[in-house]
Amino acid sequence: MLHQFSITRRVEFSETDMAGIMHYSNYFRFMETAEHAFFRSLGFSIVTDMTDPPVGWPRVHASCDFRRPLRFEDQVEVRLLVKEKKRKALTYQFRFRKIGDAHGGEVAVGEVTVVCVQRQKDGTMKAVTIPDAIASRIEAAPPEALELNTTS
């Protein structure tokens, strides 16, 4: 079972603002990219028809604390940790670390909570228990893994 996953991304020019700093909204895109890659590593897609009935994962909470900026051409590791696993929801912690950064530590820390849902016949979504095929492959990270590096 997995409780963490990481990807590496490069900050593209189109992801920066007029000051050359990565726009805050792109941190959320990077988090979503890491989440999708995490699901693929489990053998699923975030938009899955591999369960019957299919499930989706809308966000019910998203936050990000920014410590130092990322700039065009910076390479960043985005590390996903499963902070909490409930019957119907997952909370992820995301840590952004600039590769080659002399300061070390995280440049940003985010959190996203998603709820497992099924679309009803009337088009509404209803929270449901995470299918065992998915839940059995995910575990919450140990508490010590979730401790943040506050020295950065």
Rg over CA atoms, rounded to whole Å, is 16 Å
Question: Mind telling me the CATH superfamily name?
Answer: Hotdog Thioesterase
Provide mean pLDDT, rounded.
92
Give me the count of strands. 7
Weakly predicted, low-confidence segments: none
How much strand? 25-35%
Explain what you see.
This protein is of the alpha+beta class and 152 residues long. It has a single domain, classed as Thiol Ester Dehydrase, Chain A (Roll), CATH 3.10.129. It is built from three helices and seven strands, in the order βαββββββαα. The chain has helices at residues 24-41, 132-135, 143-146; strands at 4-10, 59-66, 75-85, 89-98, 108-115, 117-119, 125-127. The strands form two sheets. The protein has a five-stranded antiparallel sheet with strand order 1-3-4-5-2. A two-stranded antiparallel ribbon has the order 6-7. A hairpin with a 5-residue loop joins strand 6 (117-119) and strand 7 (125-127). The protein is globular, with a radius of gyration of 16 Å.
Concise synopsis of the structure shown:
The chain is of the alpha+beta class and 152 residues long. It has helices spanning 24-41, 132-135, 143-146; strands spanning 4-10, 59-66, 75-85, 89-98, 108-115, 117-119, 125-127.
